[in-house]
Design brief:
Length: 453
Amino acid sequence: MTFNELNLIEPILNALETEGYTNPTPIQQKAIPYILQKRDLLGCAQTGTGKTAAFAIPILQLLYALPQERNKRTIKSLILTPTRELALQIGESFGAYGRNTGLKHTVIFGGVSQHPQVQALKNGIDILVATPGRLLDLMAQKYIDLSQLQIFVLDEADRMLDMGFVHDVRKVLNVIPAKRQSLFFSATMAPEIMKLADNILVDPAKVEVTPVSSTAHTIKQAVYYVKKADKKNLLIHLLKGNEIDRALVFTRTKHGADRVVKDMAKAGVQAEAIHGNKSQNARVRALDNFKASRTRVLVATDIAARGIDVDDLNHVINYELPNEPETYVHRIGRTGRAGASGTALSFCDGEETAYLVSIQKLIAKNVPVIDNHPYPMTAKDFAEAASTMKEQKKRGGNGGRSRFGGKPSGNAGSNSGSQTRSNNNGGQSRSSNSGNRSGGNRSWGNKSRTANA
């Protein structure tokens, strides 16, 4: 299918052609017709599937068909999103796809002066992209009037709940018109997500392009077992090769991100961090440097990373595994976007094994283990980690979920069956599988130019 087959208007088709996009992704193929029919929509799509374009393109077309206001524009569409980076990305998409429509949009978020945002609102806009805090702040100051709103979008609903924004979302729902079109997007559909969707949507069309909580088949995954103290050395070792030109590295904490940047600087690797304690200008500068390959390594926390969209990003590295398995899906979705191939590498120390088990259970697949590297964990290392976890459990800690019976195989289930080996980033990988022996586990998709915003 091409965009020409989706009954899009000429101004938008011309903009897509300028961007070099010809073929819609599955979420775009399914969602755009429903939205153009003015249906409410419940969309379940993992990150990197092109869902921003899936709602931005039809919204632009619907608003373009309305009578143009000559004197004062009113906000007709609101896109509510959890992070500043994602808000900026969505704003860029509306600018790109709507360049020929004459429609105006602006993006508002906290952490920066409100003056330029207020001025843009005073000048009049058709589309507002916002994070919850700054939106409610400017609404309280009477700078934002949503009484004429026609289309409401809640994007990344699962992350919105994770970040504690559910009460802010409800405050917004209380002031926008009850008669409206609502679009709801989430990468996962846990019960609490569905409950929120039920409060927002009326007889929605449902679109799901991948199984819930699945990872893109174009992403090659692998895990390294390594002691916590050796993680920085392993990262430096991997970066010494030529395979990784740029890497997005994830840590669980802001302090951890800053520490990795310092370790990389000592090793002569150009790295920058992006997290909540950084100013907005610093975050934008770090992301721009990474996109332009002036910075080789961008180290991010989960909240800061949502919305990072970098063309041709080949490697994501989980320096620390997330304690929520759904976060793993979001993280590695930064690569392998819109059909391109990518590699996701994870470092797992003894105390993180329980996280890996949960991840593999969620994604319903085993992550191959690479043990041919300079810093492998020994049986003694795992025994010491098990002892530490046991002590934490006695003291009421949350680390007692792991089960250690020797060196893990990276398998969420039993270890029956034969081993599968494949060459992966220069080392051997193995995972316990019931399948037959094979020469490789690569699932590389052909790279195609599609709208992956």
